[in-house]
């Protein structure tokens, strides 16, 4: 297993629409394990493949607290087929937008179809943080970031700040 570098805003890779997984095979499961290891290392509670530069429709989630037994979930080709009308607000963050947090309102519950690690079709009904996290990750598969759900003023400020950081980093690399 290996920890992979994270793709950070404003990298245009984050805006790609990921492609469906065609077969659940050993290299794909290896990628899932690398994503879990990368997520635990960060640490984060979810990660989409595009965040490690792989434009595939796969995401991992583990909501277990640090003192709890790990509960890794792998979702391949996930699709939301039902959302509740009632909404909930969570303070979200993203490993691709380090150290920035903002409240986002989303449907409070979702039902998701996906393939598991065995390539078997599954359904999950999710509420609370799992529902929010699934929506945040499925957004990544479509090139959407949580800052797309906040005001344009705030979003423009965040993007500007991360552009500046990227420029400074590029400058240091050139020396
Ligand atoms: O680690 C993460 N925490 C988080 C908190 C609230 C809502 C969503 C998330 S997902 C995020 C990891 C990440 O960037 N996944 O794409
Ligand atoms: Ni994210």
Strands, count: 7
* Attached small molecules: ligand GNR, nickel (II) ion
The CATH homologous superfamily is called Peptide deformylase
CATH domain class name: Alpha Beta
User: What strand order characterises the main sheet?
Assistant: 1-2-3-6-7
Distance between the termini: 33 Å
Low-confidence stretches: none
What does this structure look like?
- The protein has 175 residues and is an alpha+beta fold.
- It has one domain: Peptide Deformylase (Alpha-Beta Complex), CATH 3.90.45.
- 30% of the residues lie in helices and 29% in strands.
- It has three helices and seven strands, in the order αβββββββαα.
- The chain has helices spanning 26-41, 128-141, 152-174; strands at residues 46-48, 58-61, 73-83, 87-94, 97-107, 109-115, 121-127.
- It has a five-stranded antiparallel sheet with strand order 1-2-3-6-7, with helices on both faces.
- The longest helix has 23 residues, at 152-174.
- The protein is globular, with a radius of gyration of 16 Å.
- The mean pLDDT is 98.
- The structure holds ligand GNR and nickel (II) ion.
